[in-house]
Amino acid sequence: MEIVSYPPGMPCWADMGSPDLSASKNFYSQLLGWDYEDTAPESGGYQLATVRGKYVAGLGPQFQKGIPAVWTTYLAVSDADATARAVRDAGGQVFMEPMNVMDQGRMAVFADPTGAVVAAWQPVKMPGAGLANEPGAVCWNELDTRDPARAKDFYGKVFGWSTSEMPTGATPYTMWHLGDGERPIGGMMKMGKNWPAEVPPHWMVCFAVHDADTGVEIVRELGGAVFFGPEDIGPGRFAVVADPQGAAFAIIKLKEGS
Questions:
Q1: What CA–CA distance (Å, rounded) separates 107 from 230?
Q2: Taking the mean position of all CA atoms in its chain, how far away is CA 77?
Q3: Of 90, 82, 79, nearest to 155 (Cα)?
Q4: What's the number of CA atoms in the CB half-sphere (13 Å) around residue 233?
Q5: Mean pLDDT, rounded, of the chain
């Protein structure tokens, strides 16, 4: 599905800072079919991953040594500075103050009160990903947290999100909605006792693939890790994996109509 703009509050982009950018480019190219477009020299080597010539995600070098490689979810905003103020007022922590990204947009990075890191993107020339919900592109963003109630309060105040609950056994799955919109824009799962204590709250990025089982095989062959699956869930066949640099993410073969 091609996308040309995102309403404020919608997940719109994902990127990852890698300690070995060349290896990461090779890994995601083989797994997700990505090609790459190098950005301006002043971006420090940031790569725009493409599928069918459309931007789907970003890969860049890791500027702070010794920190874990992670995928970051970006939420579209109309005013990054106002969002940063709202984050603080709602009990969050701003890690990167709003800054211009050349002439493409304005961004900020923060953590919600439960500890999950997420970014804000105020578009200028670049709205975000040009594709979603098809192989090689992001199809879902999920907050995994130990305090869903606090997260609901925070994202409701800062982004105007509402929630609905989907029964999934002992622990219901939470859907995020823009205002009163019916279509979910993301999800939330409570991190229970089965989650390792050292795993912090986080936003998980999920990419659509042509075949989840083949995807898992590729991850293993290229030196990545498989944490879960592949297993069949409601929207399709799903697995949680990590690349060879340790960045965790999910893949799913979507069912028709999902």
A1: 34
A2: 15
A3: 90
A4: 20
A5: 94
